[in-house]
Design goal:
Alpha-Beta Plaits
Length: 422
């Protein structure tokens, strides 16, 4: 159902039309007369970055097994990644690397490090435009070929966005779209990118129950702010200029402020997720190894805290141990790069599902084949809410007292009836 217009919408239209009439060339003269050295130009290299590596977290390195993982090797379009097991080293051949970021997106423990392409940075970039514009477009440098507009998020490859980032975005936003002209991927040298983003988006859509649009014609892209954004920005501007008497402050945050607050609140939520998780299961194992919560898993858990009904859409396998075969050698715990599993002081194997990246490394390194991967309860990814539990206990206690009061009243009435009959 379309939102009903009011006088504020009319004033916004008048303001936009007046701005267009007062500057009919749309800033063309300013561009022509500006200092060429200060005019921003299109540079695809600005959106790319060669990853650094943290070999300590690599699954093949920690397990010393070529059977484990290898996702980065499969997705790299130029075979630029080398994993040297004897030297326990992951390296990238600089001359071969296309800086596509696909290895960053698919690596479960986060072995490949960047500043521009981390899960949280990418989430924030897309969330900012999705909060302010009617459509938020995710695209790549080849598809755009020009300076991006406000609601266009340019990546080295659309496959740079991992499944976890897509899920977190889709759980909160329904205005996401991928812009890729027809045939653009067929001509790209990042030959593994199309399959990568298709798999990532497909799984995220299944988990979130939401979908990503696909736009192929640049002429059909829209760059309109949302109605809520324009209205709040307009009201705030009027208040600042004195056109509206502001008593007790402006009732609505300005559009840009509201978006910034939403991003800040999300960052705070991620910190709270880690704090609650550490409080619930401890930040360290019995062997004093610090558990590592990857950015991608943190985004997923934060989204599930707000949308717990989506947990049932997840199908994750976690390690389970056959005690009759286990010799408590500890190889499983040593191979886990995020320290999600451990052999405790009593010699018992355990795993924290929220931290587990479902990589199967522990299963492959077990010399006795005592570990198998079994489905976990997706509800394990939802953290307990102490406040909600406290309120539930209070409600239960209140209900118990009400029931006791009813029983006392009933006993009293029964006694009165017996006296009356006697």
């Amino acid at each position: 159902m379309a939102e009903q217009r009011d006088i504020i919408d009319d004033l916004i239209d008048i303001q936009d039309n007046w701005a267009a009439l007062s500057n009919p060339l749309g800033g063309m003269i300013d561009t022509l007369t500006a200092d060429p050295s200060k005019v921003k130009t299109w540079d695809p290299g600005e959106y790319k970055e060669t990853p650094r590596t943290n070999s300590v977290t690599c699954l093949r390195v920690t397990s010393q097994s070529e059977e484990v993982c290898g996702k980065c090797l499969e997705v790299c379009p130029t075979a630029a990644i080398d994993i040297d097991l004897p030297r326990k080293k992951v390296s990238i051949m600089q001359d071969e690397c296309r800086k596509c970021g696909l290895c960053v997106a698919v690596c479960p423990p986060g072995t490949f490090l960047t500043t521009k392409l981390t899960a949280k940075v990418l989430y924030d970039r897309v969330a900012r435009v999705a909060s302010a514009y009617e459509k938020a477009y995710v695209t790549c440098t080849r598809a755009l070929g020009r300076l991006p507009k406000g609601n266009e998020v340019v990546l080295p490859c659309v496959g740079t966005l991992s499944t976890e980032v897509w899920f977190a975005l889709l759980s909160d936003y329904d205005n996401l779209s991928v812009y890729l002209p027809l045939g653009i991927c067929d001509r790209c040298r990042t030959i593994t990118g199309e399959e990568a983003y298709a798999d990532q988006i497909g799984l995220a859509e299944e988990q979130s129950g939401n979908s990503v649009d696909l736009d192929v014609d640049e002429a059909e892209l829209t760059h309109e702010y949302t109605r809520a954004y324009k209205r709040s920005q307009f009201v705030s501007n009027m208040a600042r200029t004195g056109a509206i008497a502001a008593t007790g402050g402006v009732p609505l945050l300005a559009g840009a402020q509201a978006v910034a607050k939403r991003i800040k609140d999300h960052s705070q939520q991620l910190l709270e997720v880690q704090r609650q998780l550490e409080k619930a299961v401890g930040s360290k194992t019995d062997q004093s190894k610090r558990r590592v919560l990857t950015q991608g898993r943190k985004l997923v858990i934060a989204a599930l805290q707000k949308h717990p009904e989506l947990a049932s859409n997840f199908h994750l396998n976690v390690p389970a141990c056959d005690w009759s075969l286990c010799t408590m050698c500890g190889e499983c715990a040593n191979a886990c790069p995020v320290h999600a599993c451990e052999i405790d002081a009593g010699g018992r194997f355990s795993v924290e599902a929220a931290y587990c990246i479902n990589c199967e490394a522990c299963m492959y390194v077990c010399p006795e084949c005592a570990i198998t991967m079994e489905p976990c309860d997706p509800q394990d990814l939802i953290l307990p809410d102490p406040e909600a539990e406290r309120l539930a206990e209070q409600r239960a206690e209140l209900e118990r007292k009400k029931q006791e009061a009813r029983e006392q009243v009933k006993k009293g009435l029964d006694a009165v009836e017996r006296l009356a009959e006697g």
